[in-house]
Structures are given as structure tokens and as C-alpha cells.
Task: structure prediction
Amino acid sequence: MKHALMIIVGVVATFGCHPIPVQSERTQNRTPRSPQSPLPGTDDDRHDVPRPWTNDPSSAITRDVDENLLSVLELEAIRGACQDYRNGDHSKATRLRCGKWMFFYESFGTVGIPSHLLEFLQHWYQPYFGPSFSSMGFVPNPNSNDSIPLGLAESTQRMGSIKVHAFTCASCHFGQMPDGRYAVGYPNHQLDYGRFFASMIALMKLSINPNDNSIHPLLKAALDETVQSARQRSGFMMGLGRLGLNIATRGGDAMTSGALDLTPEEQLRFWHLRTGTMDFLTKPMADDGVWTVSRILSLWNLPTSDRIEEADMPHGLLSWTGIGKSLMEFLHGFVAISGSNSEWTDEQLKPLADYIYSLRAPTATDQVNHDAVERGAQTFAQAGCLECHDGPSGEGRELYDFEQIGTDPAMKTIYNPDEDGQLCCGLDAAGDHATWSIKSPRLAGQRFRTRLLHNGSLDNLEQLLCLEPRPERHSEAQSAIGHRFGCDELTEAEKIDVIEYINHL
Ligand code: HEC
Ligand code: HEC
Result:
């Protein structure tokens, strides 16, 4: 049984996957503008600063922001839409509804977590994980009677003959915002990906042997009480035995090939990941061999090809290193590296892409201080922020050197490129090359984000502009030293205005 459980803990780690998008030659060869050099034609800065996109709620087909979770899920409206789409109804309404369904429930046939394991953890460890893993930042599914949260869906792929649940877009890109509303496209900065992983692995091992030396002492101490009280309940060892047997006998080859043991140091790294951040390329799946920490990005106001052209951007600059040209490529990458067992065509992915393009940063519900916003906009332009934040939603129109931003360069090595920029681990199938650069992300919707910068090391704009001290972090990949623009140059009053401006983008 011990062996079977070792295998389980290996396989649970195979779910979290992400697209490896493609990089453009043009971006690579472009020299970043220096923040000091004047922009052409900025005499009238006030009119050039990014502004909120106008939302016309009356023309909206899907309801994507609301305090009522059931209204946002609108299951009745979207159920069956993909069937209609497959049957030839390619109208906009059907496409968006089908895309929304895919966003929440499509597994893409990717590998996931054995469903029995999720059930076991909920049955015996619910006090720790919370109902439907809500203590880990998942949103419970009000339309379901089981304890599987939104963002985990039964995969069309199996592990041997075992049912598995895969991560859908909704696990990381949907959630409850600080103002209480639920929003699609919201980066789930409450999601405790690292602790979910690390504690799942540790709990399975400690269930068998509470003194297991392969578990880091810090995790062991933190989980000891949880393990002891589960072990004292009657039927626990039998439940554990059944789970092990089930997976060992029915898991098939996939179970043995995914075997993994996190070293104590690796366990600690996962444990110390802040919520809303992750290394999505680590063993036993596509492992780039480097420890990088990525914060979940929001999916609001993604620029379409028209906007990209209008803004003179090289392409979509998707992901933190700006390697991704278009959403469609990104989606193909996601399906491919997540271990999918099926092929997906552009036509099949189009509803999801169209739906994501339709998502907009929610507007703030509180009173806007228009004077402060205008003053802040002016300061934003005059202080040089606009040099790197002049795209359609306040994003950069090109990529930047890590040195130029003064940030930790750990992310530079993501996908572990060789000297020529060729990506490791078979991730270069499409001839993609590393950018070795960092993008300046879209600022729209900033007021709803509780993690800032690529590694999620900061909590708010006050820390970014050094109105509040910046926190100490555990590893270089999580350092909070970067992007000190404005910290020393702006007065306190100016900083407060800039914050007001950014908060209303
Ligand atoms: C396990 C969490 C997770 C899941 C599941 C996930 N993402 Fe992401 N997503 C992330 C993280 C983290 C990033 C930032 C990665 C980076 O650039 O290093 C990201 C970035 C993105 C970006 C780039 C946005 C930008 O502004 O550059 C897009 C687009 C995206 N995800 C779409 C999707 C879609 C569509 C799905 C479902 C098919 C999905 N993601 C599933 C975590 C996730
Ligand atoms: C040289 C280019 C450059 C300049 C100048 C610049 N930024 Fe940035 N900005 C970036 C980059 C690149 C990032 C991403 C850095 C990272 O993730 O580590 C960023 C990140 C941010 C973020 C965080 C966004 C997020 O989602 O994490 C905010 C807010 C921001 N900048 C505001 C400003 C303000 C305000 C100024 C002027 C005082 C400014 N920036 C000046 C390039 C720049």
C-alpha cells in the first residue's frame, strides 16, 4: 500500500500546466525605450494616458461580474451552447456562451488529480482544506452536491481506469474579488496553489507514517495535529487502504510513470509560495529545472489583433515574459503541454478565445474622485510611467530588460533556454525562443488585485510606490526589490493621486 500511495502523490502533481507561447523575432530585436527618453508627441500628455474601456452592459451576452455567484455561473444559459456550436450555430451569442462553458468546465482531456484522492481528502481532512477546498482559495460550486470546487472538472482522460479531475481555466482565472463580487477573468489571488500541493503530498505520506522523514520538519509540525486527529477517527486506516488499493490496481501505467517525490527543500518552496503564485513548470511534468514564481494574470481587456495593430504592439505579448503572440496559440499550448489525449482545432477553441476577448475589467463601485484621477493621470505621464505603460490598458507596447526594471532576474531563466534561446524539455516544438525579458502588464482592474509584480511579491500600490515598506521574501525568485519607479521622485500627495488614477483604469 505504501508504494501505491507514493504513486498517488506523484500523480497529483501532474495537473498544473500552462501554455508555452511563442515569441516574435521583432520583440527580441527591439531595443527597449529608456524611461528617460521623451516619447514622440507627448506635448499633450493628458490625452494620451490609458483610460478605462467603456463597457456597454446592455449589449452583454454573458453575465460575468456579480455579487450573486449563481448569476455569474448562469448554468442554464450556457449549458448546451457547445452542442449548438458543434451543430453549426456559430452565432456570436452561442460562441460566447459555449466559451464560457469551456472556461468553467472543459478539461481538454488533460491529466489531473485522481477523483478518489479528492474525495478522501474531503472526507478525512476537510477541517484543514475547508469545504470544497475553500481554505485553499477554491470557490465551492453551488450547482453541485459533491465537494469538488469550481475550477476542477472531471477529465475526459483517465488514469488507467481511474477517474481524474483536471484544472480548468476557472481555478486560476475566476474568483471572489475583495469587494465581494465574483468575476470571470479575475486572477484568483486567494488560490493557495503551493500549500494545496505541498500539504496534499505531505498529508498522504504522514497518514501512513506520522514520522515520515522525507517530509520537511516545518510541514510535519504544521500538519501534525491535522494528521493525528484524522488517524484517531474510526475507519481512517481502512479508508486509506482502500484508496491505495484502488489506485494501485486500477491506475494503469500512467500511475507508475508519474511517480514523484518532492525533496524536503522542494516541499518547502511550494509551502512558501504566496497565494496567487506558482511555478507551473516543475516535476514530474514538463520540468524546466529552474525555480521561477509566476503570479496569476488577469484576463480582462486582452487586446485583439485590431487593438494590437492600432497600438503598434509587436503582438499580444502574452505571459510575463511576453513570449505569447496570440490567444489562439496560447490555448493550443495549454492543451498540448497539459498532457491532453485529444487534438483541438482552431474552430473548437474559437468559442473560448472569443469569450476571453469579451471579458472587461469590472468598474469600481465606489465614488470616483475625478479631480484626483485627473491629477494622477498627469503625474503618471510626467513621471515617466507612460513610457512603459502606454498600451490600450496601461500595458507596455514592448518588452523590458530585467536590469532596467531592477527586479530579480530569476524569471529570465523560465523554460531554461540554452544560449540561443532555444527552450528546454521539448517545449520548442514550434521553434519558440526565450525573450529573456519582462513585460509591463495591463493595469486595468488593478484595484481588484492583491498581488503585484510578476512574482506576486507585493500586495498593493502603496508598497509599489514605497508609501508602505516592502515585505521581505523567502527566495530570490520572490524578492520584492524591483520596479522602484516613482518611489523617490514623487511626493506623497502625487503618489496618492497616481494610485487613484490607476485604481480607476
Ligand atoms: C493552475 C493555474 C492556471 C490555470 C488552470 C490556467 N492559468 Fe492561465 N495563467 C496562470 C498563470 C500563473 C499565468 C501567468 C504565467 C506566466 O506568464 O508566467 C497565466 C497566464 C495566462 C494568460 C496570459 C495573460 C497575459 O496577460 O499575458 C492567458 C491568456 C491565460 N493564462 C489563459 C488561460 C486559459 C484560457 C486557461 C484555461 C484553458 C488558463 N489560463 C488556465 C495560471 C493558470
Ligand atoms: C522602464 C519601464 C517602466 C517604467 C518607467 C514604469 N514601469 Fe511600471 N512596470 C513595468 C514593468 C516591466 C512591470 C512588471 C514588473 C514586474 O512584474 O516585476 C511594471 C509593473 C507595474 C505595476 C504592477 C502591475 C501588476 O499587475 O503587477 C504598476 C501598478 C506599475 N508598473 C505602475 C507604474 C507607475 C505608477 C510608474 C511611474 C511611477 C511606472 N510603472 C513606471 C515597466 C515600467
The pocket of heme C (ligand 2) is lined by residues 35, 380, 383-385, 387-389, 396, 400, 404-405, 407, 438, 440-441, 443, 446, 452-454, 461, 464, 482-483, 485-486, 498, 502 (CB under 6 Å). The two ends are 55 Å apart (CA to CA).
